[in-house]
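Bench notes, afternoon.
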Amino acid sequence: MATEIYLVRHGETMFNQLDKVQGWCDSPLTIKGINDLKVTARALSQVRFDNMYSSDLKRAIDTVHLMKDANQVSEIGKIKKLPEFREVFFGSFEGDDIQNTWKQVSLAAGISPENDVTKIINQVGIYEFREATKKADPRHLAENKEELDDRMVRAISVLGDLTRNEQRVLIVSHGDFIKTLAIKYWNQSDGLHDIIFPDNGSVTRGILYNNGKFEIIDYNVAAEDM
C-alpha cells in the first residue's frame, strides 16, 4: 500500500524574520507565522489523515499542533517526533546573519563573494555547496551532502516503517530539508541545481510506496490550492 505524505513547512519564526541562519537552533513562531499557519490548517481541516508527525524542533512541533487542532475529520493521538526530519545543520553558522554566511560559503567554494544562495548553488552545484558550507564552518560541524543525504534516506526509511498501514499522513518539517528532499526526489529537479525555497506553511506532497520508493509529486503548494 502506498502512503500519501503531506510535508508542511513550519510557520515563520523570529529568525526567519531577522534573516538569521536557522537549522538545528530554534526560535519561536511569529504572530504572522501563526496567522499564516491558521490559513493552512483551515485549508487542510477536511483532509483525513491517519497520523501526523513532526520534526523534533519546537517550531515544527508548534506547527503540527495547529494542524492537529484544526482538523475536523482525523483522530490523531500523540504526535511522534522524528529527529530525522530536522532542518539542515549549519554548525557554527547557526544564528548568524544569513547573507554574511553565504558570502563565507561562496569564498570557500572558490567563487567571488555572493550572498544569493541560489546563485552559489547554481554556479557550483548542490554537492559542492554543502561541502563548502562544511569547509567554511570554523568547526566543520555543518552537514555536508553525504551526511545530509544519509539522513534523508534514513528519514524516508523511518517514515516507511511508521506508515506501513497508513494511507495519508502529515509531517511538519523545515524549508531547506524539504527543498533538499525535492532536489533529490522530485522529477522536475535535475538533482544538481537549486529550486525555489518552500514558503512557510506550504505543502509538498509525496508518495511513499511499500517497496520503499519515495517521490515528490507536488512541491511548495499553498494548502488552499491542493
